[in-house]
Specification:
peptide deformylase activity, 5 helices, iron, single chain, EC 3.5.1.88, 196 residues, globular, alpha+beta
Length: 196
C-alpha cells in the first residue's frame, strides 16, 4: 500500500526515533509498504518518520544512481545491487574528506541544495530478519545512508545548509508545510492536518 509522505513542518520529522524489536506489529507489511511508497515517489531512500512513525528504521535502494554516466564501473556495480533495510542503525564513525553533493528529500519536494558530508561511514544495524551487521560504506552510498540516518535522528538536510540559504528557502519551506506545492506522489501536510 502506498502511504502518504509526511511534509516538512510536521513535528514527527523532528523526533529522534525509538528502537524496535522483532515483535514490532506488522513489520513485514510496514517494510513492504515503505518500499512501495519509496518507489512510487521515485526515491532512493525512505525513513520511517517520513511516513509518520518515529522509529529507527529506513530503506535504501541506490540502484537508480548506477545509471549515472559520470561513475566508474566499480561504483556503478556497487550501487546497482544495493537494496537494504536498516533497523536500529547506529553510525559508529564518519571519516574521510568532506564533499558536497546536491541533495533533495521526498518530505521537502522541489528543494535541492548542496550538502557537505564525510566520505566514509561505519554503521551497525539489523536487517529485516534481525540479523546484525557492521559495515563500511563510502561515496554516494555513504551519503544516502547518512541522509536517511539523519531522519531517524530528527535532522533534515536543510539543517546542514548555510543560514543565508535557509533564509532564502524560508518562503518555499513555509509553502510546503501549508500544502501549497504539487508533488507527483501522495503527501500529508501539517497545516492541513490541523484544519480537520
Amino acid at each position: 500500500m502506498i502511504l502518504p509522505i509526511i511534509a516538512y513542518g510536521d513535528p514527527v520529522l523532528r523526533k529522534v526515533g525509538k528502537e524496535i524489536d522483532k515483535d514490532y506489529p506488522n513489520l513485514d507489511t510496514l517494510l513492504e509498504n515503505m518500499w512501495e511508497t519509496m518507489y512510487n515517489a521515485h526515491g532512493v531512500g525512505l525513513a520511517a518518520p517520513q511516513i509518520g512513525l518515529p522509529i529507527r528504521l529506513f530503506l535504501v535502494d541506490a540502484s537508480p544512481f548506477a545509471e549515472d554516466d559520470d561513475m566508474s564501473a566499480e561504483e556503478k556495480k556497487q550501487l546497482a545491487g544495493f537494496k537494504k533495510a536498516f533497523i536500529n542503525p547506529k553510525i559508529i564513525e564518519e571519516t574521510g574528506e568532506e564533499w558536497s553533493f546536491n541533495e533533495g528529500c521526498l518530505s521537502i519536494p522541489d528543494v535541492r541544495e548542496d550538502v557537505s558530508r564525510k566520505d566514509t561511514i561505519q554503521i551497525s544495524y539489523l536487517d529485516e530478519n534481525f540479523k546484525e551487521h557492521k559495515e563500511s560504506y563510502n561515496g554516494l552510498l555513504a551519503r544516502v545512508i547518512q541522509h536517511e540516518y539523519d531522519h531517524i535522528e530528527g535532522v533534515l538536510f536543510t539543517d546542514k545548509i548555510s543560514s543565508l540559504k535557509k533564509r532564502l528557502l524560508k518562503g518555499r519551506l513555509s509553502n510546503i508545510s501549508k500544502g501549497k506545492i504539487k508533488a507527483d506522489y501522495r503527501m500529508r501536510f501539517p497545516e492541513m492536518k490541523k484544519r480537520r
